[in-house]
Design a protein that fits this description.
about 900 residues; eight-stranded mixed beta barrel; alpha+beta
Length: about 900
């Protein structure tokens, strides 16, 4: 132990810790936690001579055995005193009393604080004052007065012994009479244990002349009173249950001994932990508790509680309490036996009347018992099967294999559950659900087998019908998506090395067929396609209808080369017209192909890659076979990245609008600009629209993004007008997906109103795809936009289908000649003639013409000669960021006065 000497004042603790053999001087070393629990980590073994308990019992964290020898309130106040002294000095000294088995023991504790492994500890010595040099009580003689006193005390002891003997005889007679009474008593109530408990508790309180007597039963950690008689009030009461785990010393004494005879219950180590919660509130001073045991296990306790002065329990009283406890234990045993007999009869009736078949077979396979349900299921009577071997009965052949086959599940386990198929006596097949278990004897040896089963034939057939419905397509009769997935998973579980190909087939433009010919014709077409695909595949191929117009094909054993060959054959098969509802219908298909193990070693990966390949085939124009490549995986990953980041981009102002000037080709004055969206990602840098607009359209994010772009463009137009650049018109591209927003027209009108921009200064550019598939709702929205006063322009004119028809159907104001016609002018004569024709036609229809992609003076000169109205392109300016726009536009002649 480390000490801290001080030249002027050395503490007692610092001196004694340097003594060579402290135990010889009556000092006991200790270490404990610096806590009010007083939990000891170490105590000098010499403590057993002074305290009466070994150090191993006093050192322990559970229940704080050393602290239990002290008064709790004294212990807490002493802990506070120790902290006060340590705050002032490096040591402390306190006095306190231990209630040891040898009686009260006055101790002096001196020590110091230290820290070990992050814990605050105390160490020092316990000193028993006067314990070093005890005086020897030796007298050399007795005087006459002492002799007379000794004779008088001997006479008094003799008289008390005679009185005790008489009282013992009286008690013995009362005890014998009570035992005989209890033995002859006939219990008539429905609860003999309750009746016996009331009888014993009342009789015991009278025989022992105690205030209270009760019988408590132990159930887990709860001690519940079955009967508690108060002799002082002459009635029974029902107290609350007691959590016996809170009193470990009492519980240990109850298990380790026959009885607890606490003459002074408040100070007895076995019962004093009950003092505050039970003894003091009830005024109990002495207790005699006898454990009630069945088979050596404590199941309850007989409690005799004495109030008033302390009471010494006589030996015969302690023994008689044990006999009373045994009497009640016998009542419990008899009651359990009756309950067991009753339960056995009830079990026999339940087995006889059960709808399940019961079968008891000995270890050699001889049938010992079957119930009536067994006869109802198998048509074999009990007499036909009793004493016969299972192997001799056709209906039970499967049982014999299950019991005695070394490869069965029952050979290694004690029970088995499952379905089996067998035959009745009339050879009719049936399905059974069986649960069979081994039965072991007292010595652990196998004696019997017990089987319980029921006829599940109808439910099995129903399950098969349900499974067929669940895994088949009602329209085509093929397997459905769950069936195909299950088949694919089973294939991978059985064999992961043999190659296989997964082919996803999508019928192109099937929605048009449904819309034009009707769903009934569409369904008949799918049935014909399914039949044609089934006939074109080998018998080993698995074909399923995966979705509305999508089929899946599993080509087992096909490698990459043969898979591509079969995919090409399927594509040609689909190209052949089909005759449905008296009309010839031509369809095409898009196919995605993935092969295992090259493109995936599990069902999920293979299906994902085949889906990516199909998606790519449709995106590339349909009517083709696309083999999966890692490039498709990268594209899908990038698409997922864009989708996950795009919503955040709008919220965190990562999107930015660039503007490309639009000039009058006749005067070279600035007329307006086209708003172009850009995405400035914090990690990826600037992302162009063609890399994220399609994802925004698929996810629906294009609707809020489009509104944001319109508002930003309106604000910029208003800002430029305030800067003196005139009323510049701003053009914005509208995605077809934005027309799915029913509030499109209302939101644009609201933005124009809020930003105070005249509708004529906003131009909306429409794609030919929108006009090609326009619905009545789309036409209505376009007319409403026209009524609002905005300008409508057709973007990329000349690149789609039936472009001229749009000019009659829709309220178009402007057409934009696609850059693909401008880039090869003047070298390409065809482009020059097409461009000239478009400009002339537009002017005849009183439409304005905008040429985009002007990059050379020659292109500009040609367009001017053809009297094209407006132009934009790199010859004038690239798209300009919004914060730089005002600076760049200053160099153009404006139309402020227009």
């Amino acid at each position: 132990m480390k000490s801290h000497p001080d030249a002027t004042n050395r503490a007692v603790a610092e001196v004694v810790t340097q003594l060579p053999v402290p135990s010889r001087l009556g000092l006991m070393r200790f270490e404990r936690l610096n806590e009010a629990s007083w939990a000891l980590l170490f105590l000098d073994p010499a403590c057993e001579r002074s305290i009466g308990l070994p150090a191993s019992e006093l050192c322990g964290f559970l229940d704080a055995p050393f602290a239990s020898l002290m008064e709790p309130q004294v212990r807490y106040s002493l802990h506070d005193e120790v902290q006060r002294q340590l705050a002032e000095h490096r040591h402390y000294s306190i006095h306190y009393t231990l209630h040891s088995p040898n009686g009260p023991l006055r101790l002096l504790e001196i020590g110091e604080a230290f820290q070990q492994h992050g814990r605050q500890l105390l160490r020092g010595y316990l000193v028993i004052p006067g314990g070093v040099d005890e005086p020897r009580a030796a007298q050399k003689g007795l005087d006459l007065e002492a002799q007379n006193s000794y004779l008088r005390s001997s006479l008094a002891r003799y008289q008390r012994a005679q009185e005790d003997h008489v009282q013992h005889l009286v008690r013995s007679q009362a005890q014998q009479s009570l035992i005989v009474r209890l033995a002859r008593h006939r219990y008539t109530s429905s609860d003999p244990a309750q009746e016996a408990a009331r009888l014993i508790s009342q009789a015991a309180s009278e025989a022992y002349d105690v205030a209270r007597s009760g019988i408590w039963l132990l159930e887990g950690s709860q001690l519940s009173a079955i009967s508690l008689y108060r002799r002082d009030q002459a009635h029974f009461e029902q107290p609350l249950s007691v959590d016996i785990s809170l009193y470990p010393r009492y519980l240990e004494a109850l298990h380790s001994g026959r009885a607890i005879d606490a003459s002074d219950a408040l100070s007895d180590p076995r019962t004093r932990e009950l003092a505050d919660t039970y003894l003091k509130p009830e005024g109990v001073s002495a207790m005699l508790d006898a454990s009630i045991r069945i088979g050596g296990e404590v199941v309850g306790v007989l409690c005799l509680e004495h109030t008033g002065a302390s009471r010494v329990w006589q030996t015969d009283e302690i023994a008689f309490a044990g006999e009373l406890a045994d009497q009640f234990a016998q009542v419990l045993v008899n009651q359990q036996r009756r309950h067991a007999t009753s339960a056995l009869h009830l079990f026999q009736r339940a087995v006889e009347q059960s709808a399940s078949a019961f079968l008891l077979v000995d270890r050699d396979g001889l049938v010992e018992y079957v119930n009536p349900s067994f006869t109802a299921i198998t048509q074999y009577s009990a007499e036909e099967v009793h004493g016969r071997r299972l192997s001799e009965l056709p209906a039970l052949e499967n049982f014999s294999d299950l019991l005695f086959d070394t490869g069965s599940g029952l050979a290694a386990c004690n029970s088995w559950q499952g379905e089996f198929r067998s035959r009745r006596k009339n050879l009719e097949p049936y399905w059974g659900q069986l649960s069979i278990s081994k039965v072991f004897g007292e010595g652990g040896e196998l004696t019997h087998y017990i089987g319980i089963y029921e006829d599940v034939t109808q439910s099995k057939l129903a399950q098969q019908r349900i499974e067929k419905l669940a895994y088949s397509d009602n329209l085509t009769g093929l397997g459905n998506r769950p069936y195909f997935i299950r088949t694919l998973e089973e294939r991978f579980q059985s064999d992961r090395e043999t190659p296989l190909c997964l082919l996803l087939v999508d019928i192109d433009n099937f929605k048009r067929i449904n819309d034009s010919l009707g769903h009934q014709t569409g369904d008949k077409l799918l049935v014909s396609l399914a039949r044609r695909l089934r006939n074109s595949l080998s018998p080993s191929g698995v074909l399923a209808r995966f979705a509305s117009n999508e089929f899946a094909v599993l080509l087992d054993g096909a490698d990459l080369e043969s898979g591509q060959q079969i995919a090409g054959q399927v594509l040609k098969t689909l190209d052949k017209p089909l005759f449905v509802d008296n009309q010839l219908i031509s369809v095409t298909g898009s196919l995605g192909l993935a092969c295992a193990p090259v493109h995936g070693r599990d069902p999920q990966t293979l299906m994902k890659h085949a889906g990516l390949a199909l998606h790519k085939a449709k995106a590339n124009g349909k009517h083709q076979v696309q083999l999966f490549t890692e490039v498709l995986n990268a594209e899908a990953s990038y698409k997922l990245f864009v989708e996950n980041n795009l919503r955040r981009a709008l919220a965190q102002n990562e999107l930015e609008v660039f503007y490309q000037p639009k000039l009058c080709l006749k005067t070279a004055k600035l007329l307006g600009m086209e708003a172009l969206l850009r995405w400035h990602h914090p990690d990826k840098g600037m992302i162009s629209p063609d890399q994220f607009i399609s994802v925004a359209e698929e996810t629906g994010m294009i609707i809020p993004i489009g509104k944001w772009v319109i508002r930003e463009a309106c604000r910029m137009s208003h800002r430029l007008q305030s800067a003196g650049l005139g009323q510049l018109q701003v053009a914005i591209n509208l995605s077809p997906k934005q027309f799915s927003d029913p509030d499109l027209v209302g939101s644009i009108a609201a933005i124009l109103d809020e930003e105070q921009l005249p509708p004529a200064q906003l131009e909306l550019e429409l794609t030919e795809g929108l006009l090609l598939e326009a619905t009545d709702d789309t036409r209505h929205q376009l007319n409403c936009l026209k009524d609002l006063g905005v300008t409508l322009a057709m973007d990329d004119f000349g690149t789609g289908y039936s472009s001229l028809s749009y000019l009659k159907k829709f309220p178009i104001d402007v057409i934009k000649i696609d850059r693909s016609f401008i880039k090869d002018i003047p070298e390409n004569q065809d482009d020059k003639e097409i461009t000239s024709a478009v400009i002339a036609m537009a002017h005849k229809l009183k439409l304005k013409v905008v040429a985009e992609g002007i990059e050379t003076p020659a292109q500009l000169g040609f367009l001017r000669r053809q009297q094209c109205d407006v132009g934009q392109g790199y010859l004038f300016d690239k798209p300009i960021a919004g914060q730089q726009l005002l600076q760049y536009l200053g160099r153009y002649p404006s139309r402020a006065g227009a």
